[in-house]
From TrEMBL:
Catalyzes the phosphorylation of the hydroxyl group of 4-methyl-5-beta-hydroxyethylthiazole (THZ). It comes from the Bacteria. ATP binds at residues 120, 165. The gene is thiM. InterPro entries: Hyethyz_kinase, Ribokinase-like. The lineage of its organism: Bacteria, Bacillati, Bacillota, Bacilli, Bacillales. This is Hydroxyethylthiazole kinase.
Length: 269
């Protein structure tokens, strides 16, 4: 499994997929730099006049509702429709779903309208999209519960690959589950690390049709990069943010094969 993960990382770098992001104002620059460091090609495009054209030529479309407004939501729906028509994978990050009724309503509307290849959020966001109670404070998950059960339930309900992140990350679809235990707690002290991760999943999904495996591989590579970044930066959030970009550029087959903590269950063995 680790060899397959490492090969997919190399495939991302070799193919340099174009990733169309409609994302939030907090993380835009960090997301573009993270994708570039990894070896993908980011573009941010929001105008209603061009989003469909951009989505059609992308390797993946990433929809992130972190600082949503009505104009941007319409852009996401237009881009999502075009991506669906062309078979371009769409990855959705329902940032802050559950924090306000508007966010919850829009997250459910996007998940119900656009055919998603995957949805990625923290436990509270995913729970709130499917109408389960789970505490959220702004964009951060504060509740507790079984993340594997939540991911499986959401995969069934939403009929897509579900990625729930936290201390351990879970990927679920109707075929089974992956659990990935890489990463570092400092990721929670830098804003945008979840959003960048969603775009990194987009980069992996652009070059691999098995979206559950693509997501699991992205999580493992990202988590290993975070571990390398911590070794470089120590407990300094500012330095860690920069070190994470550097680590995304250098994380290699050898790092992945030595460090990836990825486990597959059911048919994902
Ligand atoms: N306690 C933790 N220990 C290690 N890694 C973590 C921890 N919490 C979150 N992460 C990692 O941080 C990244 C962002 O996840 P998360 O914080 O759940 O998303 P978001 O920022 O959208 O709330 C993921 O790579 C996840 O694995
Ligand atoms: C702080 C904040 N507020 C709206 S979007 C955003 C960024 C959230 O980023 P992440 O979910 O990756 O922590
Ligand atoms: Mg988030």
């Amino acid at each position: 499994m680790k060899e397959r993960v490492a090969s997919l990382l190399e495939k991302v770098r070799n193919e340099n997929p174009l990733i169309h992001n409609i994302t939030n104002v907090v993380v835009t620059n960090f997301t573009a730099n993270g994708l570039l460091a990894l070896g993908a090609s980011p573009v941010m495009a929001y105008a209603h006049e061009e989003v469909a054209d951009m989505a059609r030529i992308a390797g993946a479309l990433v929809l992130n509702m972190g600082t949503l407004n009505a104009v941007e939501v319409e852009a996401m729906l237009l881009a999502g429709k075009a991506a669906n028509e062309r078979g371009v994978p769409v990855i959705f990050d329902p940032v802050g779903a559950g924090a306000t009724p508007y966010r919850t309503e829009i997250a459910r509307a996007i998940a119900g309208t656009v055919k998603l290849s995957a949805i990625r959020g923290n436990a509270a966001e995913i729970a709130n999209v499917i109408g389960e109670a789970w505490a959220i404070k702004g964009v951060d998950s504060t509740g507790e519960g079984s993340v594997v059960e939540l991911a499986q339930k959401a995969a069934k309900r939403l009929q897509t690959v579900v990625v729930v992140t936290g201390k351990e990350d879970v990927v679920a679809d109707e075929q089974g589950v992956f659990i990935i235990a890489n990463g570092h707690p400092l990721l929670t002290k830098v804003t945008g690390t979840g959003c960048l991760l969603t775009s990194v999943i987009g980069a992996f999904a652009a070059v691999e049709t098995d979206v559950a495996f693509a997501a699991a591989a992205a999580l493992a590579c990202y988590g290993v990069a975070a571990e390398l970044a911590y070794e470089q930066a120590g407990d300094n959030p500012g330095s860690f943010q920069i070190a994470l970009l550097d680590a995304l550029a250098i994380v290699s087959r050898v790092h992945v094969e030595e460090r990836a903590l990825i486990e597959g269950m059911n048919s994902h063995v």
